[in-house]
Each structure stands twice: as structure tokens, then as C-alpha cells.
Amino acid sequence: MAINKADFSLIKERRNSIHSKGKNPLPINCQTDSVAGCVSQRACVYCGARVVLNPITDAVHLVHGPIGCASYTWDIRGSLSSGADLFRHSFSTDLREEDIIFGGEAKLIRCIDELFKLYRPPVMLIYSTCIVGVIGDDLEAVCRNASERHGIPIIPVQSSGFAGNKSDGYRAACEVLLRIIGGSEPYSHKPYHLNYLGDYNLAGEAWIIRNYLEEIGIKVNVSFTGDSRYDTLLTAPTASLNIVQCAGSMGYLAKRMAEIYGIPFLNISFLGLADTKESLRRIAYFYNNPLFNERCEKLIHREMARHAPVVYQFRRHLAGKKAAVFVGGGFKAISLIKQFRELGMEVVMVGTQTGRQEEYETINELVAEGTVVLDDANPSELERFMLEQGADLLVGGVKERPLAYKLGLAFIDHNHERKHPLSGFVGAANFACEVYQTVCSPVWNYVDK
Amino acid sequence: MNADTKTARSVSENPCRMCMPMGGILPFKGIENAMLIIHGSQGCATYMRRHMAEHFNEPIDVASSSITEQGTIYGGEVNLKQGLKNLIKLYEPEVVGILSTCLAETIGEDIARITSAFVKEQTGSSLPRLIPVSSPGYGGSLTEGYFQALYSIVENVSQESPPHHGINVIVPHISPADTREIKRILDVMGAPYTLLPDLSDTLDSPYSKVYKRIPPGGTPLASIEAMAGAQATIEFGETLPDGLSPGKYLRDQFGVSLYRLPLPMGIAACDKFLELLKTLTGNPVPEALKKERGRLQDAMIDSHKYNREGKAAVFGEPETVYGISRVLLENGVTPAIIATGSSNPSLKGLVEGLSHSDEAEPFILLDTDFAELRRYCAAKEVNLAIGNSDGRFLTEKEGLPLVRVGYPIHDRIGGQRILSVGYTGTVMLLDQITNTLLANKLNHYRNDLYQEFYRSAGAGQFE
Question: Which domain holds residue A387?
Fold first, then answer.
């Protein structure tokens, strides 16, 4: 049965960004600019770049612009560090009216010099904001000169907010990472070394995965960018494999590193028991070393014995419940659909801020008939489809949480603020527990639905 | 009086300041049936919504004109107009605030002109009241953005009205709980009033079966129109520059008498407020409020010795910081550092007027950041921090306990419910301060005294 698309939204430009499986065909309209006035949940280019780069723990992250951009991104994410904590400080050139009129270069130079003197960082990243290009500051030139002056890489991040969307920020960040690792010494690939891309070490997740891999016999050179440092980033070219968790933010880096350094990559996912098992096996298999396969199976056996019963115990309470998903990228949405399946739950609405067409195709294959799929959804759409589809739970970020609660829905924070790991076997158990704690909370017995 | 501004350094490290559009959103959220659009790139609206959602635990809908590369080069007028059309369709608001940003102002967007052009193009359709506010992020801090928006609202909406006995009450950014408390005091005093803005229900809305995209509550448009005919305006804004004062606008344009008061925090400021209400309404202060006053006095006596040990750093928006400083001084807590990220010109003089001559004078930090504040906290041996959640580094790095009050509160629940105005609110704030000092003392005194005085008996020396 074809559906009248006019039913999807009052706003004509939004109608092709909403899809109902089995009722109207793909493609879905995605990877486009947000429609003005629709209250998009997306942030900007700067946000995308900052998310990816900020976990580099020993870098100075200096935001060149007025204070707001630095103020709203100060230490808001739960990336953990095993050493330096410079990345948790938010530096800004704090441009004022006179800087806007006369240009901000002089102040930027002063700020770079002050910060170098104060912290002697091995690398500085200078983020451009909306107005930097408009007032004509030459960030490249300032950074090049400062680099020479101080003898460390000082690298501009081309992250003017308006110049695209969050995905363009990911890409700008990947370009910066390529520049950093481009400064490495000559390298040769070490056989059992890999880089772990697209993990930001939220609540120690990159550490968990590294422990698994080391147990198998595989060394992680560096995680991009969770708990990374300048010197560990430089070891990246010596890897013989890149594994990619968050493909939305790091797929580009993986492709470029394959071209430049000849490092092959595997897209993997450590969200959920099934994905974690499969990913570990694929990585072990890649090395064609029977010992790795053996250790991998041993690890899987042990971890499953410890964590799978926890998942199954909560599943008893959750089977048949309905979930709605609205997250940043397509990769996470796909993993979540599978993870909810492990809990016996069906996903009835799924959307992303910046998913790609091929990801939406995978999503469409995974979900049941009638599931609503949305790109760059707004609160009105989330509200409507969560209610219409009878969702019991929403997975999202901070902005979506109060909406879910006002609608009387359970909620899972699956964003960078989380304080407990959701990756690997232990993460799958945590996830099941969190879903149980919110869906089966006694408070729902006391609110009128 | 000491004062310092961040002149020695150029770089800002760990900001103690939010930007003007963030301040501009808040008053519109306290107008009935109002929505907002931010003319800028998509990120501004989203970051601010995220920040506010965490503090208020409420959905915060703010649209963006989502200026792109094209818009930056050729102008964002098309985006803004399209954005207005879409948001009006989606939300059916009565009022729309249109805020500019760094980007819009820098590329020379004239939002007032675009707004009137939009109104002209849309003749025939019934439009909401559109209120443009110039709020470039680099033009000031949250406080300036807040009052700029409030000023624009009053300037835009208030009009020659028949005189009435109502009292205009204009508040700085205070919590929904504070707003409710001020309304309760006005009600108890039998004062007819228009409170602007009124966040009490909109940003602390009760759970209800039916969700409304624009939460019910807020100051009605009609009441703002009639503010011009009120008998008086009470403006809680002693730190407010004249150019941003909606009360001054109402006085100059419509002859409404203006009374500027400090926020009713601390016994003296509460007394001032009630004295004025007594005069304006002719009603006596009822017994219930007198009892609350007595309880505050009782609480002050109960805790005065503990409070005397407090040496505090207070930080946040100027008016809040000023109010808290009054409470500290009344109770013998030393406000060793009074800090704000704003460049407010009057805070220093006001605090100077308060401090008792036999005390060390508070150290005022204007236009500051948390790196600087942290250094002064260490240098001045402060033992307590009072302000918003951004002070958490003071706890983490300097071991200073933090009493959370102000905005934003993003690492604890219930920012919207923090009550610190009125006699009752003052007691609650004071108890928090005292208990934080007590907890800190009780956690440390055994070990401190052991370290200071205990010596093991020396072997043999007494034989």
C-alpha cells in the first residue's frame, strides 16, 4: 500500500526524508542541508570536527572565534585519558567586536604564543568558527608561521560552522589527522599491529577493546582518537590493519590511509554480543594465524559465559517492547537495531542526523515492515512517530531525552556523555541492564499514560 | 577595592561566559506561546538547546535559519524567511523571537529589515508577533543578550494603555522555582502584577498526559502590551546598565515609575521588596510572611558560627553574583572573590557599598575565565565555591566544595528547582552553604588535627 507522503510532514521539503518500510520505496533524502526553521537536531561542522579531535589528550585545542563555541563544548564528553588532561580544557581566542572589525589574526598569534609558553604541548589544533573566514583571517598562514616559531605542528581545523554539516566536520578532522600522521618517520608495517578507528574511549571503551585484542595477540598502535597522544598518533602508519568502529566519522580516514599507506581496513562493531563476537572473529581471521583464532574463541567463550546470562536475564523482562532510535550516524543505528533484537525488542522508528544512503539501505533491510525511518528528524517528527508507532523507549542524546520523558517514554543515553561503557561483552550487559532499568522502572506506574 | 580584568592574557581558558544569543533565548521561553529562530548556522541553535535541555530537563525547541556556505556569500535572507514560514507552520506560535548571531551580524544581515520585508510579503495571512533582537555572540555575555531580548520585547509590544494598578515585575535570569517564589510573594501581598519573563511553568512544566510543543505558561502578550499603563515597575536589576533596562524604557516612554531592587536574596533585600510592595499596594505584610522572616533570622543565628569560617569564591551572572554576595555578607561568610564573565560596569561599586569596613574587601574579577578564577582561589585560600556547574574544576583540581546555584547546572539534576529568593529561598541557600562548610570540616578535622598535633612519644628521652 502506497502512503500519501503529504501525511509525513507539514513541511514539503521534509517529506522525502521520511520513509515507511514497505509503504514507500527508497532512496530516502539524506546527506543534504537541514531545512531552515524545522528545528533540526544536528549541530555544525565545528561540532563534528571537535567531537573527533578533542579526545587527543595532550593537544591544545584552541577555538578561534567568539566565546560561545568554546563555552558550550568545554569538557562535555566522557572520553577518558590514561595520562594528559590538557584536552579537557577549553581554550578560546574569545574574539570581541574590535577583533571582528580589525581581524582576529593578531589575537590568535598572541593566544598561540601564550599557550605554547604555558603548556609546551606537542601539537596544537586551531579550530576555525563561522566568522573566521568571513573576517578574512588566514588561519593557514598564522599556523604555518607559529609552527616554525615554536617547532611543533600547529594545525588549522577547517571547521567553519556553516560550511556544510556535522559530517563535513568529521572529514575536516580526518584531514587534520592525516596531516599529523603525515609527519611520521619512515615506517614499515608491523605484522600484528593495528589501529582502532572511530572509538573515542567513552567510559574506557577503547581500553576494553584493546584488552580483548591484546589477549588474542594483536597490538593496538593507537585508537583514533580515544586516549590518543601526539606520539601514539605518529605510530599509525606502522599498522598492518585498520579496524573501523564509527564509520560515519572515520570511514574517510580509513579509505585515505589505505590509499596513502596501503593499510587495509575492516568495518567492525563492538556494540552487542553478536557484533562483538563476529568482529573479534573477523579480526583474528584476518591475520591467518591459527593461534589467534584459538585465543579468540577462548576469550569469546569466557566473556559470553560471564555476560550473556546478564543479557538473557534482562531479556525476559524486555521481550516484545518497542524501541525508537535517533542517533548521530547510520553505523550506530544499524548496531542498535541488532542489539535490540538480542533483547527481543523491535525497533519501530529509526533515524539519524547524518546517515548515508547505503546505511539507510541496510537499516531498511534490517527493520520490520511499517518501521518509520527518518533522516535529520526534528522534535515534532520524533514526537509524532514515537507516539504513532507506540514506542516504549527512545535511544538518543541530551536534546532528545526530555522529549522522551515528557511523552512518558523510557530513555537510553547513547552519546558522548555516557559514563559507563556500552562496547564489547561488558558493554552489551551494561546496555541490557540500562534498558531494563529505564523500561521497567516503577515510576511508569505512577504517571498517567 | 581590588579589581582585575583579564588584561594580562589574550587567551580564554575554560570560559566563565556564555554568549548573547543564549541569553536571548531565555526571555522568549517565558512569553506565552512563543517560539524562536536563531539566524545563523545550525550549530548555534543546537548547542544552546543542548545546554538548556541539560539544565532545565525540559525539551527546548529553537529553530535555526541554518545558514550555509551559499547564505554566507549571498546573504541569508531566503533562509530566514523560509525558516520563519516553516516554524510558524510547525508550532503555530503567537510570538516569534528572531535572534541574530556572530555569523549573521558579521555578514551584515539586517534582521529588522528582513523581518519587515517578510511581514510585507505575507500580508493577508495572520502572522505571529515577530520580534527581532540583535545578539551577536561577540557583543556581550548571556546577561547582555538576556536583557537585550527583554528590552526588545517590551519596546516591540508595550503600547500606550489606560492606567491601571498593576505592577510590572522584571526579573533577571532566575530559576523557575525562584520565579514561582516571587509570584507567590506578590500573590500573598495582594499585588496585581505582570511578571516578565515568566519561566515558572514553561521551563519547569508538570508532566501531563498530553504533550504540548510550546509548553503552557509564560507572560501573555496582552499583559506585556499593558505594561505601559502600570502604576510602577519593579526591576530586579541593580547591576543592569541603563541602556538595557526595560524598566527605564517604560519610565521614559510611558512615565511608569521605576524601582530598581536587588534580587530578594538575604534579609535586607527581601525587606526592601516587601516594603515597596506594602507602599504600592497599601496592604500590610501578612503574618505568614512575617513568620518566614523570623525563621530566616532564626536560621541565621543557628548557623552564624559555622558560616564565619567560610571564605567563598562566588561566580556567575552579575545580578545573581550580587544577590549571593549580599547573603554571604549578612551571614559573616567572607566573599573573598566575586567573579563574573561579563564586563559589568556596576558590580564593583555595588559590592563596595555593601562590605563592612572592618572586613577585608572582596576581590572583584570581571570578564574572567575559570583558569584565572582557579589561580585566585588558590592564592586567597578560599574554602568554598558558589556558582554554576562550570565551577566543577574548582572541586576536581583545587578540592573546593561547590554549592551549585545559577545557570547552567549540567552535572546535577534539578537546576530548574533550585530556590534561593525570598526569605524561604534565602534559608535554603544559606543551609546549603553552611552544610557544605560543615561537611567539609567534618570530613577533614580528625585527620587535620591529627596531622597538626599528634607526635608519637620519642623513645628513651624521658628516662
Answer: 319-418
Contact between residue A114 and residue B9 where contact means Cβ atoms under 8 Å apart? yes
B37-72 tens-digit pLDDT? 999 999 999 999 999 999 999 999 999 999 998 888
Sign (positive or negative) of CA dihedral B206, B209, B211, B215? negative
CB A37 to CB B87 under 8 A?
A: yes
Residue that has been written with the C-alpha cell 590509499 in this structure: A259
Judge: A114–B60 Cβ closer than 8 Å, yes or no.
no
Contacts with A, B 394-453, CB within 8 Å: 410
Where residue A135 sits, what CATH number does that domain have?
3.40.50.1980
Contact yes or no for B182/B252 (Cβ under 8 A): no
Q: What is the CATH number of the domain that holds B37?
A: 3.40.50.1980
Is B381 an 8 Å CB contact of chain A?
A: no
Residues A217 and A291 in one domain: yes
Q: Which residues contact A108 (CB under 8 A, 6 or more apart)?
A: A64, A93, A126, A137, A139, A142
Residue B319, Cβ neighbours under 10 Å: how many? 28
Q: Give B244's contacts (C-beta < 8 A, 6+ positions apart).
A: B144, B147, B148, B151
The reply to whether residue A402 touches residue B53, judged by beta carbons under 8 angstroms, is yes
Residues A244 and A341 in one domain: no
- Nearest chain B Cα distance for residue A404, angstroms: 9
B76 DSSP assignment: S
Which H/E stretch holds residue B321?
Answer: helix B318-330
- d(CA A117, CA A134) in angstroms, rounded, equals 29
Whether residues B11 and A89 touch (CB distance < 8 A) is answered with: no
Cβ distance A36 to B18 less than 8 Å, yes or no, reads: no
User: Going by DSSP bridges, is the β-strand pair B95-100/B129-133 parallel, antiparallel, or unpaired?
Assistant: parallel
Q: Tell whether omega for the bond before B335 is within 30 degrees of 0, i.e. cis.
A: no
Q: Which set of grid coordinates corresponds to residue B335?
A: 566573599
For chain B, 463 residues long, give each residue's pLDDT as a single digit of tens: 444 454 568 999 999 999 999 999 999 999 999 999 999 999 999 999 999 999 999 999 999 999 998 888 889 999 999 999 999 999 999 999 999 999 999 999 999 999 999 999 998 888 999 999 999 999 999 999 999 999 999 999 999 999 999 999 999 999 999 999 999 999 999 999 999 999 999 999 999 999 999 999 999 999 999 999 999 999 999 999 999 999 999 999 999 999 999 999 999 999 999 999 999 999 999 999 999 999 999 999 999 999 999 999 999 999 999 999 999 999 999 999 999 999 999 999 999 888 766 667 889 999 999 999 999 999 999 999 999 999 999 999 999 999 999 999 999 999 999 999 999 999 999 999 999 999 999 999 999 999 999 988 766 666 5
Q: What pLDDT, on the 0 to 100 scale, is given for residue A187?
A: 84
Instruction: Please give the single-letter amino acid code of residue B90.
Output: L
Residues in B closer than 8 angstroms to A134, CB to CB, are 72, 103, 106-107
- Give yes or no: residues A87 and A170 share one domain: yes
Q: Rounded to a whole number, what is the distance in Å from the CA of A418 to chain B's nearest CA?
A: 12
Domain check: are B28 and B114 in the same one?
Answer: yes
The reported pTM is 0.95
Which residues does A174 contact at the CB level (< 8 Å), separation at least 6? A52, A249, A250, A252, A253, A256
- Edge-to-edge strands, sheet with B232-236: B193-196, B167-170, B232-236, B257-261
- DSSP assignment string, B195-236: EES--TTTTSPPP-SS--SS-S-SB-HHHHHGGGG-SEEEEE
**Beta-carbon pairs below 8 A across chains A and B:** 228
Structural domain span for residue B118: 18-157
Residues B295 and B436 in one domain: yes
Residues of B in contact with A448 (CB under 8 A): 207-209
> Could you tell me if A131 and A226 lie in one domain?
no
> Is residue B43 less than 8 Å (CB to CB) from chain A?
yes
Asked if residues B216 and B94 have their Cβ atoms less than 8 Å apart, the reply is no
Nearest CA in chain B to A112: B11
